Amino acid sequence: MAGRRDALLNREKGQSLFGSRIVGAVAIGVLLGCVLAFLSPHGLFSSSNSQTIHNLRNRISNQMVSSECESVEQVNALKSDVQSAKEKSYELKKEVRSLMEKLRQAEQGKGHAQEQVVALGDKHKVGPFGTVKGLRTNPTVIPDESINPRLAKILEEVAIYKEIIVVLANSNVKEMLEVWFTNIKRVGIPNHLVVALDDTIEEFCKSNDVPVYRRDPDEGVDTIAKTGSNHAVSGLKFRVLREFLQLGYSVLLSDVDIVYLQNPFDHIYRDSDVESMSDGHNNHTAYGFNDVFDEPKMGWARYAHTMRIWVYNSGFFYIRPTLPSIELLDRVASRLSSDPKSWDQAVFNEELFFPSHPGYDGLHAAKRTMDMYLFMNSKVLFKTVRKDDKLKKLKPVIVHLNYHPDKFARMKAVVDFYVYGKQDALDRFPDGSE
Ligand SMILES: *[C@@H]1O[C@H](CO)[C@@H](O)[C@H](O)[C@H]1NC(C)=O
Fold it and tell me: Membrane-spanning residues where (predicted)?
């Protein structure tokens, strides 16, 4: 890449060198002309000589005109050369990026696989103190293309290393979707896919060169898709997601009210079934804490310790194609359909976190909370980050406008702030909704 860049630089340098030669030639011509004009009327030269000089002058100026024409053409040719070299370099950069991503993931995968072998292999004695690790990276399922060959084909083209960002969208969120994919493209994340829930969105994606998948008509589910509120669509996504996992893909499920500022795949650990952004707003609430409950009447035992963690955000999580992951999707989808009033995010968290107990088998899924400053919710941004000189300088991977109803306006402000560097872009908004 460096060599290529040097070549480009040299070419540009060559171009300016060429330009300065023309300027030099013109200057010499003009100077010569002046000298001759000064000398010719009376001085040293006879009339025949002045004829020669006239011819000479003509020749020089003719030459200058023709060399100017040639140079315009040459400059244009060079310009288009430079342009195509730039395009090529962009393509190569993209390729290098995707190869690096594959390499890094292969290495990460090798590490996880070794841990799996240790944990799942023959029974073995326990190693020394502090060296023992339980299984958290579950093995992936065998892909089954027969369940949806059309989607399988799309994913084969769009996904990178069996990973893809997926968003569900209907016409209600068209303008936010535009901000969504514009920023994804700006960052240069090729592996994203819109699941279009109506014709308008399908057309909109096609005309904007955004990878799109339209599901086959599916009774019941599709009336939700067309007319549904945000919450109803959220329920649908668990059913849609299942197919992606069955096909063997890891999905980064994304809501539409999210601004991408870096490539999230560079910041995923891939060691758990579910890796999710948090609704928490500081270390305690995002990562879990011991919340002491006080009941003074109990005297000596007045303090009861409780475990608390702010919920995972079911609008942005990375899910690997494993049995616990698919079990999670099934459990959430079936609870949502049996109780239409339930909220998908609450159900998602209850299924993830409640342990087995009498009469109930809990889900045994491995989970990881994403970094709250890299995968930032809008409460963290508007309540804390924008007022803190140090935190303000951090560049998040994504910002999710989950905490605010004026999503579109705040999304654009986030772009102004982080992409265009407008330092006051976030100032006009209140912390919460007023
Ligand atoms: C939150 O946790 C991080 C990482 O563990 C630490 O560096 C930081 O100081 C903590 N912040 C606060 C306010 O405790």
Answer: 21-39
Q: How far apart are CA 279 and CA 401, in angstroms?
A: 11
Q: CA separation (Å) from 96 to 83, 92, 193, 412?
A: 20, 6, 22, 31
Distance 276 CA to ligand 1 centre (A): 19
- Residue 230: pLDDT above 60? no
Compare 288 and 338 and report the one with higher pLDDT.
Answer: 288
| Residue whose tokens read 């000479």 | 56
Q: Are strands 312-319 and 258-260 parallel, antiparallel or unpaired?
A: unpaired
Rounded distance, CA 53 to CA 319, Å? 84
Domain annotation for the chain: domains and CATH numbers = 147-370 (3.90.550)
Q: Residue 138: which of 237, 267, 245, 252 has the closest Cα? A: 245
Q: What is the DSSP letter of 278?
A: E
Residue 75 Cα to ligand 1 middle (Å): 57
CB neighbour class for 62 (10 Å; exposed up to 12, middle 13-18, buried from 19): exposed
pLDDT in tens, 236-293: 899 999 999 999 999 999 999 999 999 999 999 999 999 999 999 999 999 999 999 9
Ligand 1 centroid from CA 283, angstroms: 6
Pair of tokens at residue 326: 């698919």
Distance 103 CA to ligand 1 centre (A): 31
- The answer to whether the predicted template modeling score (pTM) of the entire model surpasses 0.85 is no
Supply 393's token pair. 């300088």
- Measured CA distances, 370 to 214, 271, 397 (Å): 30, 12, 11
Separation between Cα atoms, residue 76 and residue 349, nearest integer Å = 61
Q: What is the DSSP letter of 123?
A: -
From CA 109, how far away is CA 250, in angstroms rounded?
A: 13
How far is it, in rounded angstroms, from Cα 168 to Cα 201? 10
Tell me, in angstroms, the distance from the centre of ligand 1 to residue 405's CA. 29
Asked if residues 211 and 154 have their Cβ atoms less than 8 Å apart, the reply is: yes
Tell me the CA distances in angstroms from 306 to 58, 288, 292, 309, one per residue in order: 97, 10, 6, 10
Distance CA 64, CA 56 (A): 12
Report the distance separating Cα 322 and Cα 143, nearest Å: 10
Residue 311 and residue 176 in contact, taking contact as beta carbons nearer than 8 Å:
no
